[in-house]
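Revision sheet: structure tokens.
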Amino acid sequence: MNDASWWMILLAGLLAALLVITAVAVPLRRLRQSHALWGEFFASLSVPISMLLGSALWLTVLTLFPAAFGNWQPHGHYRDIWFLFWVVFLLFNLSEGVGRLYYTQIRKETQPGRSLLWLLGRIAVVTASVMVVLQFAMDLNASQLLTSTALVATVLGIALREVLSNFLAGISINLTGTAQPAQWIAIGDKEGEIIHRNWRETRIRSTGGHIYIIPNSMIAHHLVNNMTWDSPLRRHQLDFPIDFSVTPAIVCAALRAAALSVPEVDRTHKLPDAMVASCREQCMFYRVRFWSRTFHDRSRIEGLVQERVWYHLQRQGIQMGGVVNVQGSGLPALSMLRPPKAHSAPDPYALLQQSGFVARYLMDAQGQLLLPETALQHFADQLTHRLFGPGEQVLTLGEQHSIGFIHVRGELIGRTALAALRVDAGRFQVTSGDWVGEITLFSGLPRNATVTVGKGDAELLEVPATAFHFLLSCHEEIVRIFQHRLAQRSKQLIEELAEVAVPH
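Predicted:
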């Protein structure tokens, strides 16, 4: 038998032995899919241990019966190489299994970039094992191979320095967890959600839907603002110029109330706060700070807060100052405060007439006014014009307050507690000239509905308790009309409650 045939038979025998040992170790390797504490650890050791035991058993058979195998006795060098390879493989799997147990059981976490690091570790161990086998088992000089390999690696490193830079940066990002998929990050002037990441690049999608492909080396060398790690909570800050004549306590209360009226503002971590930021020659600057869980959507949230601030200040009769730029020939640009324009408040008497409230509640069946004009004017003088913005809550279910409203203009949508039980129940729309929150004024009970402004502005007349009681004292027919209206609403509420309680 020539050498070529012998090598072919030897290789076929080694492959057959590997297949047999692997098949025997399959039940042990299935432990990797189990949830047992040591399952994955023993599964990683099953193949090298099985191969070493099988090789030792086969070598024992060859040693006990030398005459039966004749020339098939293995050469000493090949036997040492075989056992040395599987011993190194066993030690590597042993260290890898200990590392898995340390991270998953002791530290209770998944090591970032574990698969790639283990792959690189395997390559390093296999390369070192080959060098050891060549140097000590086969008596070959491995230094020449190392020299040529180092030369090739140097050339490749110079040619692929950008690729290697991104690759190593990707390893660093995985190890540190700087940027993970589904997180919102900002790098320079680019901001968006990470939708994909590999070892070369990171892809983010902006709020406008644009996809930016950023090399990992850029992430590693630039300042990264991660908006969702390790908590999505982020603080916002807005400044407003207000005239010196307004009391700071009133302004701060209005700013806090405006921020709280926006649903996207978080209330669980910290409530919004307001303070005097600075005093200037023309005005005082106030600062409101609030938190949200969607900082990447800050433009819309901050816009809503600024919109609500305007409405709250308007209802308090507070005007914000505007900043204008003044430029002259040869002069630098200057900023000065433009004094707010004085706006005349709408006449409540005229608004009562226009809204239809007078015709609905203060006239008899013949269209005659039930109270003198002087009494109506006195009632109107006690009312205050209020302007609410889109989405603002006029009334809140369960709150206790001694004021009501008369709807003048805009869309008002009401929701009772029944709306939480069924989608099509507990909803109503307030028409122009109708009462809003009058049941609390009449009975003293908490609000039985939440009333929210729909699309666009809504104008209302605020009715204090004194004005409400004065109106009811003017004529008995006004009380009867009002009680009839309350009875209709109570009947509608009871009917809806019965429909919700008895399913169809």
